[in-house]
Amino acid sequence: MSKALIAMSGGVDSSVAAFLMRQQGYDCIGVTMKLFNNDDIFDDAVARENTCCSLSDVEDARSVAFSLGMPFYVFNFSHDFKEQVIERFIGAYKSGATPNPCIDCNRYMKFDKLFFRAKVLDIDYVVSGHYAVIEQDTKTGRYLLKKAVDETKDQSYVLYSMTQEQLAHTLFPLGVLTKSQVRKIAESQGFLNAKKRDSQDICFVPDGDYSKFIENYSGESFEPGSFVDTEGKVLGKHNGIARYTIGQRKGLGLSFPNPMYVKSINPAENTIELCENSELFSVSVSAVDFNWISCDNIKPPIRVKAKIRYNHKEDYATVTQASENSAHIEFDTPQRAIAKGQAVVLYDNNIVIGGGTIA
User: Which residues pair with 303 in a beta bridge?
Assistant: First the structure.
């Protein structure tokens, strides 16, 4: 009997994933990762309800595991999470980038630390409630990452960094289901979290105030600096670079004849460049730390669809491999507010070709 380690967040998705694996005859162990000390992150009960990873989520996961007759454990990865996710998040904002900590959490926690723990325990598969599909290409033998059947919930974008070994030993049982089907299964099994709403926020920034979190967590403050136009003319004062992201219009605290947006952030000069909307568009993207999934490399350049943000609609582009782990993408049509630090992920229809960090 194959063994499966189920990553259980306390939400409905991972709970149904656990149920489906038990139903398929796997020997399952439920695990919740303790990623931080709750009192270090949460200021109030309202914030706790809007995110995952709280103490109540652990108890929800434990309850479901118990109902399924599964052993359940909590693995303390708080030190690794601080180092690999929170500090990367803070470092990105300090460098003028816009990070995606969910990608780092998947990369360094679920499919690194948890994957390694499964190998040590001689467990065959790591299972999660992600909406994506893994298939093996019968011709090449490579494992492919594909979009979920329910494209409104598809999470392939945040999984682009998975290696061939990880894909070979990971199962996503929800990839072929819709969210409504998942909730119906949870209700049929009487899971207490069947109607639990999805977490909408970054788990360690439950109120969405990134700059406040960074200052409170690190003890560092971001000094005010100058807003400048594209020619370097000073337009006014900003309140610290961590409070702004590329493409932002609201909250600038300035009035202009025409709407102005954040075009770029310069930490060295502590300046933020503003521009009109038409100047936010670009066709070129350079990406580093690139991970190829459907192939080892590409030669010559190939046609793809590329996605520059999680909620962004992918668009046609040509990708050229610049080095072993970097690529250059040229879009057919200009894309708005391409942000350093976000991921660009390449698709061939529903297959993930690979992805990297926008440089």
Answer: 318
Contact 10, 191 (CB under 8 A): no
Q: Are 25 and 1 in contact (CB under 8 A)?
A: yes
Are 340 and 281 in contact, with CB atoms under 8 Å apart? Answer: no
- The answer to whether residues 89 and 31 belong to one domain is yes
Assessment of whether the complete model's pTM goes beyond 0.90 = yes
**Which residue out of 28, 52, 53, 105 is catalytically annotated?**
105
Model confidence pLDDT, tens digit, residues 43-59: 544 444 555 556 688 99
Q: What is the pLDDT of residues 62-102, one digit of tens each?
A: 999 999 999 999 999 999 999 999 999 999 999 999 999 99
How many domains is the chain partitioned into structurally?
3
Q: Is residue 91 part of a domain?
A: yes
CATH of the domain at 328: 2.40.30.10
Does 106 reside within a domain? yes
Place of tokens 């490579």: 142
* Interstrand relation of 234-238 and 225-228 (parallel, antiparallel or unpaired): antiparallel
Peptide bond into 300 cis (omega under 30): yes
- Which helix (H) or strand (E) segment holds residue 106: the answer is none
Active site residue 52: no
Q: In the chain, what is the straight-line distance between the N-terminal and C-terminal CA atoms, in Å?
A: 45
Q: Are 48 and 41 in contact (CB under 8 A)?
A: no
Q: Are residues 12 and 85 in the same domain?
A: yes
Q: Are residues 352 and 328 in the same domain?
A: yes
Helical (H) or strand (E) element with 135: strand 132-136
Residue listed under structure tokens 């995110």:
51
203 is annotated as an active-site residue: yes
Is the same domain home to 141 and 251?
A: no
Percentage of the residues of the chain whose pLDDT score is greater than 90 = 87
Find the catalytic residue in 28, 53, 203, 295: 203
